Structure formats: C-alpha cells, structure tokens
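so im writing up the methods section and need the X8 domain-containing protein record in one place, dumping it here so i stop losing it
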Amino acid sequence: GGTHIWCVAKPGGDTATLMSALNYACGEGGADCSAIQPGGSCFQPNTVDAHASYAFNSYYQKHGRNYWNCYFDGNALVTVSDPS
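--- predicted struct ---
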C-alpha cells in the first residue's frame, strides 16, 4: 500500500549532464544498474533518458526515498506515475 513515488530523469535534459549523473548514480551512488547494461532486462529503450531514469530511481529507492535523493544537479524529478 501507500503512494509509490519514482525518481525519473527530467524531460528534455542535457544529454552530457544526464550521462554524468547516470555514471555517478551507477558508480559511487551505488545504484543497481545491471538491468540497463547491454542484454539487461531494462536495456531497451537504449536511450540516455531511459537509462538515467532507471538509475536515478534505483538510487532514490536505495537511499530512502528522500526528495534530496532525486536531484542529480536538477536533472531529476519525482513522479507518482509509474515510468516503467
């Protein structure tokens, strides 16, 4: 139960900045990014936006779903609609 909230990449974000945030989330951020590697279950669509949203959300869920865990230099936002 309860409201499900996801953290996703902000639409129209700068690709280079998103890549940087994605690398941070998957690296020192500790997000589980195995599903967005080639061959992974969430690799398609193979877009920076889709992969960043996946990584941001993984990071956000893992770190306790605080609004400050969904910032990524202003490249992310929280949503109540399921992005999957």
